[in-house]
Amino acid sequence: MYIFVVMAFVLISPVIGIVISVLLFAQKHFSRLSAIIFGTSMALMMYCYIPDSGNDIFRHFISMNSYKNIPLWQCFGNSTFQSGVFTWDLWLWVMARFNNMQLLQASGAFVAYTMLTWMIFDYACLNCLKMKQWITTLLIGVTIVPILDIGIGIRYANAFIIAGYAFYRHYIKNIGIIQTICVLLAAVFLHHAIIPIIVAWVALPFFPNTREYVRLQQWCYYLYSRGMCRQFALDQQTPL
């Protein structure tokens, strides 16, 4: 009954939902529930946003239409504008079942903010931090990436947050390497932009010298940025 009352307040006002999420965690330390409430509030905000026609989300809307009438096993590799993004294929297939374009951008906000706030809340729980010790981290965490980048771009921001979630569970929660790799693969197949981060992570044990490791990261991003610029130029030539 309690959760239904809370969700009713979230539907009335997402801002109230965010406040309830923060106060609930501060009082009861329910990290998962508080994160879900926070993510739902941000998703509702994003659902009500009407994007401009030039935004990337419209390309995603077009892609989603091609997933409406196909079975699950045919959705992989079905995207018109991207290839090798199997997580994104599955995401679009699920969202296409609801036949609601606004839910696509809302789902991006829900996934990103739920994961992000859960990591902050969970870390505060593990270290018995008081509200004044974690509230600043929460504010920085939820504002460092603009909500429109998360809701409209979806793939790029969520891929990085999912990768951060994988690293958090591996290093803080001591989750095994197999599960970590599986989550990282899901992030890679959402957006290839995190490949340099994973390459640098895999190479970390082989570079005890910090300066050499930084150079490796710079080289990975240089190679990747060249590929991204080339792909961007091709995308601009693709008619919508």
Which helices and strands, and how do they pair?
Elements lengths: L1 H11 L1 H15 L2 H17 L8 H10 L20 H11 L4 H26 L4 H13 L3 H7 L1 H17 L5 H12 L6 H9 L6 H27 L4
Beta content:
under 5%
Low-confidence stretches: 227-240
By secondary-structure content and strand pairing, the structural class works out as mainly alpha
Mean pLDDT across residues: 82
Helix percentage: over 70%
How many strands? 0
Q: What global shape is seen?
A: globular
Number of helices: 12
Intertermini distance: 47 Å
Report the biggest beta sheet as strand number plus sense, adding barrel if it closes. Answer: none
The arrangement of helices and strands along the chain is HHHHHHHHHHHH
Roughly how many Å is the radius of gyration? Answer: 19 Å
Supply database-style keywords.
mainly alpha, globular, single chain, 240 residues, disordered C terminus, 12 helices
